[in-house]
Design brief:
Elements: E1 2-9, H1 15-29, E2 35-43, E3 46-56, H2 59-67, H3 69-81, E4 87-92
Antiparallel strand pairs: 1-3, 1-4, 2-3
Helix pairs in contact: 1-3
């Protein structure tokens, strides 16, 4: 199983648009084969920071997710919605 955790800070004035895009990709991704969980959450100490938590059955499921149209669409708009490069970590667990 893979757990992917991401953090990004919304660009000034773009948080609402980031939330809309995040909700759309999360809803679509929950239907991806091998997706156990996929969500975005607010940082309680910083309103502009959004945290993502994804759980995937295995690397091939995550790789397939990255090729889906809904993922590509999100990745295409995300750079304009965040202040800096998002930070992602991938953890492999049994």
């Amino acid at each position: 199983m893979l757990i992917v955790i991401g953090r990004a800070q919304a660009a000034p004035g773009r948080r609402d648009q980031l939330v809309v895009a995040a909700k759309a990709v999360a809803a679509a991704s929950l239907g991806d084969d091998g997706c156990e969980s996929y969500g975005f959450y607010a940082d309680l100490n910083d309103d502009r920071t959004i945290v993502s938590v994804e759980i995937w059955r295995d690397r091939s499921a995550l790789d397939a997710h990255m090729a889906h149209e809904h993922t590509r669409q999100f990745l295409a708009v995300a750079p304009d919605l965040v202040a800096d490069e998002p930070v992602l970590t991938v953890h492999e667990v049994s």
